[in-house]
Amino acid sequence: MVNTLICPNCKKTIELTDALLHEFSEEFELKHKKDMKEAVRLAEEKAKIEFEKKNSGEIEKLKKQNEQAEESLRKKELETVEERRKIEEEKREFEKTKKQEEEKIREAAYKEATDKSRLEKLEYEKKINDMQKALEEAQRKGKQGSQQLQGEVLELDLEDQLKTQFPMDEFLPIPKGIEGADIWQKVKDEGGNDVGSIIWETKRTKTWDKKWLLKLREDGRKVGASERILVSEVLPDGIKSFHRIDKVWVSSYEFPLHVARTVRYLLLRIAAMKAAVSHEDEELKEIYDYIISDAFIHKIEAHNEAIKSMEEDLSSEQRLTEIRWKKRAIQIKKLDTSISQLYGELQGIIPKLQDIELKELDSGEDD
How many whole angstroms separate alpha carbon 344 and alpha carbon 263? Predict the structure, then answer.
């Protein structure tokens, strides 16, 4: 392709080859770009100068506004910092108060938990103590019931043995108002006649009590028993099988039937002797029968026991009276000695003081 170019000076047509056109185009483009850059720079500088001239007041105003805005911003920043500091201070105070409140709450919760735990512990200990007491009471009642049951079993067994051994005798229930006695045996001879009665009591304890004898004697009087027999697991010192103590037969559980045979034999012999005695005078016979009767013997026993009790009380009161006499005699002796010494001292001060006779008192040492 052939390109032509008209010279602006001579107006001649110049033929351009591709190489020349390319070289020319590059130079033109470079120059054009350079001119364009310079033109743009100049235009920008001109526009800038014109803009600055035109808007110099606005710029100043904007600068002032900008400075005011910056100052306001700084103030706001300071206020924000102060506000933030206050917030931080309030936050720290709040955290401190919160911590104190939490500490108080923890202490209150700990105290409440401790009190609750203490109360629960006390309740638990009370429950344990109550359970222990209930267990001990149950054991005691069980033991007591067991002992009572064992006593009842022994009582029934003894009664069965007596009924088997002495089928002719009559066994009656213990009357109301008599506590302690267990068996009431009426002894009969071969003809079925009453010859006397025996009241029995069983004891199953670990220690001996002599009060049992007095109680059984009283129970015997109430039913008019001829003899009293106490069967005990524990016997008084010195007794291994059976013995008669204070008008009461005392036996171990191994020998009650031996004692029963002995007592029945005595009752039968006494009844036989009573039947064999003959008196011409009916009144004397009645008196004799009454004297040898169980009722008379019981009355004499009760009378003797009452006298013995009164003698013991009188002896005790006599000892107390003698102690008071002794004390008063010593006090009077001290007063007599004191006044004698005082009168002697006065005679030492006043030699002409008349002698007086002072009564000599017994010191009471012989008492």
Answer: 79
